[in-house]
Amino acid sequence: MTLPRLRRGDQLLFLGIMILMVTVIFLLFYALLWKAGNLTDLPNLRIGFYNFCLWNEGTGSLQCYQFPELEALGVPRVGLALARLGVYGALVLTLFVPLPLLLGWCNSNRGEWQLAVGFLAMSSMLLAGGLGLFLTCTWQWVRLSFQGPGFLALGIAQALLILLLMATAVFPQRAEKDKSKLESC
Ligand SMILES: *[C@@H]1O[C@H](CO)[C@@H](O)[C@H](O)[C@H]1NC(C)=O
């Protein structure tokens, strides 16, 4: 009587993990590719991984800066490059999570599952590192406003990645109790 219920619970948990994973990939795609890495999107301030535009009082318009000038403004070139590497690396790594997750679940294979958890952990660390570095480099402008769909998407993606990391780490212990995983795929 209790076994079928447990299996159904596991299936729902696995389904939830997969849905969250797809959501994370979608959020990262949205912020980094569709929005082209633009994080703050205000009429007088546009800051992103590839754009840096501040309000120019003199001309009364938005002025975008490129690298030699950006460094003069106090944004380190290496810092921004590493931040880009981190967040786009996180996007790439998340793409490698769903397949081993699915294989690990279908084959009851702990190794494949652990591989997925490893990709998840690396991707979470890269995103946190990249985002943290970006905020450190651009804090004096960004602190004025976090308004922007890009920021929101990356923030939610980071929170979900941590949640997924916890869920996938405790999942095998739960699933271990029930060995008939093959039936579930
Ligand atoms: C990103 O910001 C730049 C600079 O403001 C703008 O020219 C570009 O159109 C924006 N891209 C997207 C996809 O919003």
TrEMBL record:
Transmembrane annotation, as ranges: 12-33, 85-103, 115-142, 148-171
Protein name per UniProt: Transmembrane protein 140
Source superkingdom: Eukaryota
Keywords associated with the record: Membrane, Transmembrane, Transmembrane helix
Alphabetical list of Pfam families matching this protein: TM140
InterPro entries in UniProt: TM140
